[in-house]
Amino acid sequence: MNMISNPCLTIQTLVQRGVRISLCLLCGIFSLGAFAADEKSKEPTPTPAPSTTQSAKPAIVPAAPAVPLPVSKAPASQAVAKSSNNPDQDMTDVLVKKINKSSGDIVLRSSDLPPQPLAPKAEVKPEVKIEKKAEVKPKESPKSEPIVIVVKEELIAAPTIVPEIPWTYADGPGGPNNWANLKKENQLCAMGKMQSPINIITDNTVKGNLSPIVFEYQPFLLSLMDNGRTVEVSARGSNNILLNEKRYRLVGIHFHKPSEEVFNGERAEMSAHLVHEHYDGSKVIVAVMMSSSSQLFAASEKRRWWATSEENPLFQIILSNVPLVKNLSSSPRNVVINPLQLLPEDRTYFTYMGSLTEPPCTEGVTWIIMKNPLIVTAQQIHSFGQIYTNNFRPLQLQGDRIIKEIR
Fold this sequence. Notes:
The protein is α+β, with helices and mostly antiparallel strands. It has helices at residues 7-16, 26-42, 87-101, 179-182, 188-191, 313-320, 378-387, and strands spanning 199-200, 206-208, 214-216, 220-221, 224-226, 231-234, 240-243, 246-256, 262-263, 266-267, 270-277, 283-291, 329-330, 336-337, 349-355, 363-370, 374-375, 404-406. It has two domains: 1-38 and 79-114, no CATH class; 188-406, Alpha carbonic anhydrase (Carbonic Anhydrase II). The radius of gyration is 71 Å and the shape is rod-shaped.
């Protein structure tokens, strides 16, 4: 019986022979035997090499008879078996030798087993110390030296504030030719297409049945001012005109010398402008020529000029109350005027669409120009000339505008 392949059977045989085995070895032998059997089952079966000439059937080799193991007679102390690298085989060999030598109690010691080869120690790799490289800080770029700008202290004169140039009727920076350059809102003074005043050629007017103007004037307390360009009366109370079923309120009266309006190329000695305004902003200006002669315009016959000795009472009140200081308003006590006294008895008129005759030269103004003049004395005209003279705007192009005349 092969004792190596079946450790359990070996132990049973030994027991039958009356051999006592120390209990401390039973578990080890059983474990080693089972381990050996498992390892043997895992070994691959060698495959016979094929014949070069022909394919032969595998030969069945009979198992060799069991040969009793020779027993060495050398003393146990001298017999040192070499290890077979199989712990089960080594233990079996030692046990068999012990049985063959004695029939008494068999004691199996660890010293009886051949020394087992030491398992190769795992290679211990030397620790490689990774030296941390010293952090290399980026080299700082050389600091550029600050640029020092030396500024010489000099007294800088404050910007001169150019005073606003007031508009005026005289030639110069503020004159009529430069009104559009004084302010942006004055652009119509140079670019407008319906500017005033214009030359009215009486033979080229369109005569028609125009609606008469209804003057709803009432007396009011006088308030006037010399504004540096003309004498201006501020209207008070309810003073209106009714034109084409639309009511306009009187807001002021001012004077020009000579007249701004031109008839057939000639100007009157003076003119008065009565400015009216509707609540929607539209304006109507009534222009009255002022002359010391009743025959101001005669198209077909020779003009007859003669002076009149009758003063206009309203115009005289205005001249008598002109303030002594310009741009200062004056309201004399208990002085009442009636604007009806500035109108001629015959109130037929010319009309056309024009503009204001001073900046900002707003267009869309309806002009009503009385055909007959207001009679004043030469002295009154002369007195006004001591305050203002030549305060008029030059003529503007008529263009394609139509001038109508009431019959």
